[in-house]
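Could you join me in thinking about how sequence relates to backbone shape in a protein? We need material for that, and I hope you will provide a protein of your own picking. Label the sequence line and the structure token line clearly, so we can match residues to local backbone shapes. Would you write everything just below, so we can both look at the same thing?
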Amino acid sequence: MKYLLDTNVYLGAFRSDQKKAQFRQTFFPLLPATFLSSVVAYELYVNAQDNRTRSLVQEFIRPMEQARRLVAPAFDDWVEASAVVTAIEQKDKGWRSKLPALLNDILISLCARRIGATVVTYNKDDFQLIRRHKDFSLRVLVV
């Protein structure tokens, strides 16, 4: 089994030492099967507002860089993402205003699908919406 953790899973670990320890206990054993999306790395670095947080981002990302477990959206993923955005725009009109923010989650989902990984997230609503339009493996964590 392969895993691709959503940004919010990492961000939770940055909130306190207790959450960081919980993240390590839960997800470090999965490290050999965990991949990092370049989209998630981008979101983590954008959210790193201080040196402490940037250091934590590097601490979590470095093992996957060293193991070369990185995945980035390919050309076909971008094309497929446009189809998902269009489908959501047409069939789920209530989500139109959120489409720009959903693009990153769509790309994360498509990368996971391409490599046969399960997306692990706390973001149930957005990923279930995407899943209505493109099937991929999803595991929603409970807060």
